[in-house]
Amino acid sequence: MKILITESNDFSPKALLALRNQFEVKTVNVQSKQELIAMISDFEVLFVRLGFSIDIEIIQKAKKLKYILTATTGLDHVDVIYFESIGGKVISLKNQTAFLGTIPSTAEHTWALLLSLIKKIPSSFHHVKNGEWDRNLFINSNLKEKKIGILGLGRVGNQVAKFARVFDMEVGFFDTVSIKSQFKKFETPEELCKWADIVSIHIPYTVENKNFVNKELLSHFKRHSVLINTSRGGIWDEKEVAILIENGVLTGVATDVLKNELDPDSIAVNPLVLLANQNYNVIITPHIAGATKESMAMTEEFIVEIFLKGLI
């Protein structure tokens, strides 16, 4: 069996050795969709990260492809429905709850975004780099006693909620699943958003959850509230979020994800990127919440372990 690892920078040596002990493995760092299409025809297994959308066009060129491995929980970068319809199998971290509970990186990044936003760290740092020093421009807020609403109290949401408790914040949540929790439960997302000073999104991207944070839900946000997204760009309506930033309803937005983030032509014209370039209180990182050396190694090794066990 031949395996292609499409983004091999800092790929786990342990996972790579385990694969090479049994299979022929090629490691590359693909730079374009066209480059991937040109080399994919001879491989039965594809190990991908988040650099490309593995769509119908790519899959159809991979005549021998049987498995797609991805060390991610979200699968919006893979056309799972089409691949499975032709007999392929996708191996991911989806529903691997026990293992994922050991991975802290997304929750840590969420908290870094929140602190950076509330404490105005990027703009104040830029101010100093320009040779200025006026603290009165960057008076900010405490987190203590603020109300944080967790939209989706799964693995990451629960980790973020525990961070919030350490900062003496009030914690509320909404989840479609019945959950026993020490935190304040809301029966609807609208009630949560009316209550919260800060809303942090941690629901999975599914067809049902597309644009979950839409114009109607956003209409329930408090004035001067803050919104954080480390889930997926398809979870919210970015145009409506941008309108609330311009209108001052949202005093800050921080996100690690954008809609159509794998389309390089869409980034510069993204409504949130445009506002960031106009010096609104918007922070955007390029989907790096899970991209720590430790977490990437752990997840890649776990995916390889699942793959090898499935072949026995």
From TrEMBL:
What residue stretches are annotated with the D-isomer specific 2-hydroxyacid dehydrogenase NAD-binding domain?
112-289
Q: One GO molecular-function annotation for this sequence? A: oxidoreductase activity, acting on the CH-OH group of donors, NAD or NADP as acceptor
Is Protease given among the entry's keywords? no
Q: Does the entry feature the keyword Oxidoreductase, yes or no?
A: yes
Query: Which InterPro entries does this entry report, sorted A to Z?
Result: D-2-hydroxyacid_DH, D-isomer_2_OHA_DH_cat_dom, D-isomer_DH_CS, D-isomer_DH_CS1, D-isomer_DH_NAD-bd, NAD(P)-bd_dom_sf
Alphabetic keyword roster: Amino-acid biosynthesis, NAD, Oxidoreductase
Residues of the D-isomer specific 2-hydroxyacid dehydrogenase catalytic domain:
4-304
Question: Could you give a single Gene Ontology term from the biological process aspect?
Answer: amino acid biosynthetic process
Top-level taxon in the UniProt lineage: Bacteria
Which family does the entry's similarity section mention?
Answer: Belongs to the D-isomer specific 2-hydroxyacid dehydrogenase family.
The name this protein goes by in its record: D-3-phosphoglycerate dehydrogenase
